[in-house]
Amino acid sequence: MIESLFIQTLFENRPSPDEEKVRPVRTGSTDKTQTLDSAGSAAFHGSAAPSKIRTPKRRRASVEDDATRTIQARFPDKRPPSTQTEKVWDSFMDWIFGQQLQGIAYAEFKSRHAPEHALELLQKAYYRTVFENARKIQALEELDARLAKHGLFAIAIKGAALLDTAYPDLGLRPMEDLDLLVRHSDIPAIGKILENSGYEVEDAAFPHMFLKNGVLIDLHVHPIHADRFTGRKAILPFDAVSLRKDSLEWKSGCQALQRLDDKDHLILMAHHMVKHSFSKLIWLVDIREVLRQKDEAFRKQLQNRAASLAQQRPVAYALYLHDRIFGHGRSSGQNLAEARFSKFERAILDLTAEGHSIGDLGNLLWFFCINDFASRIRYLAGALLPESIAMQYSPGRVSCRKTREKAISVATEWLPRIVRNILILLKAAGISFRAWS
What DSSP line would sit under 110-122, residue for residue? Predict the structure, then answer.
């Protein structure tokens, strides 16, 4: 399997962090930190890198080490291929970019023996991420000033909340968009502010997404879209207003833009992984980076916070996978015992930890996060509607046009997925049955 090539390359003759060079760089209007090698510093859009960002060498290496352990643990039984052909590396690049690990891969491969075409591809991706993230930071700083002027607020979540904390090296964490949690009643006003700033609605079917010069801002009313999927309110009954109480400044000096307390943000990141069936390794690296900065007491505080909000299960899912994949020095079953997982839940998580795709079955784990029977039934009823269609029918935007074409499209897209999910479900049921017997 191609991923094993990455594992081998990461661990052969790994240099110490002190061997890496540090060069100052300035991105946007904000001083950040980032390590640049002498060969790569001129690759920033084909010119010399701008001046001023300094990354602590030990801090940068720790992010790369964490990703390395993630990949090694996820594919422990794999062996490197006997040849390193261009076709092999092309497949490997597809996997790297699919997992959003291109920045971390470049940080590793730039000092290794790798094919020139692969290293060039990763280098371009790394500096493109530096450029794009610098532009995203500038966009958030400008939005903060405009929101403050109108007495509004927004909470940055997911990658947007990690740039200034977990990933001071702007090239390590690619992002597709900037996710902002806002009050439902503020959406028209914030939308107007964005439009007056040059943003446009990218797609009429998604009026909460605004695009300008490659920066996409996605406004969320609820972290897991319970405003569109009412059955999810029983899973996470919190919105921007209730989460704002313990929020922090997005960065020093911000007046309107905030980020969640690390405990609350980790709870949301756990839900995000469940929503997307744990399909990308970068999300687990995100959680690892938050935990890495904390002492052992934080883990207990996190579990206490999750218990107070009735969010023990999603947090336990995240911590279980974290411990399994990163090889944390504790029993990987401890969180299971605390949350009293069923054998079926454990089977799903073990399939994930062993590197298997679980299709859309991550959403099935949400069923176990709901306590009362009636809410579970409502959740299942809502989960039967494909998300790609339901997202287009938010309040005030329901349309009956082209119903037949939509039905055909849904059947074509979802029937194969349903069959695949049933097969995965049967596999997980078989594992749990064997464990029970």
Answer: TTS---HHHHHHH
* Residue 366, phi then psi, degrees to nearest 5: -60, -30
Rounded CA gap, 335 and 202, in Å?
A: 42
CB of 266 closer than 8 Å to CB of 287: yes
The Cα 172–Cα 88 span in angstroms is 24
Question: In the structure encoding, which two tokens stand for residue 215, read together?
Answer: 């920066």
3-state secondary structure of 32: coil
Say if pTM beats, i.e. exceeds, 0.85.
no
Distance CA 175, CA 161 (A): 11
pLDDT tens digit sequence for 45-104: 333 333 333 333 434 445 445 445 554 544 444 333 334 566 777 888 888 999 999 998
CA 235 to chain centre: 19
How do beta strands 257-259 and 154-157 pair? parallel
Of the candidates 161, 55, 50, 68, the one whose C-alpha atom is nearest the C-alpha of residue 108 is 68
Length of the chain: 437
* Contact yes or no for 287/322 (Cβ under 8 A): yes
- Look at residue 159 and tell me whether its pLDDT is greater than 60: yes
Cα–Cα dist 300/305, whole Å: 9
- Asked whether 283 and 309 are in contact (CB, 8 A), the reply is no
Q: Which of 391, 422, 421 is nearest to 406 (CA)?
A: 391
Provide DSSP, 153-214: -EEEETHHHHTTTT--STTS---S-EEEE--GGGHHHHHHHHHHTT-EEEETTEEEEEEETT
101 vs 333: CA distance, rounded Å: 28
- Mean pLDDT on 386-401: 47
Ranking 38-47, 63-72, 257-266, 337-346 by mean pLDDT, the lowest is: 38-47
Of 77-91, 122-136, 226-240, 312-326, give the range with the top mean pLDDT: 122-136
Over residues 403-430, the mean pLDDT reads: 66
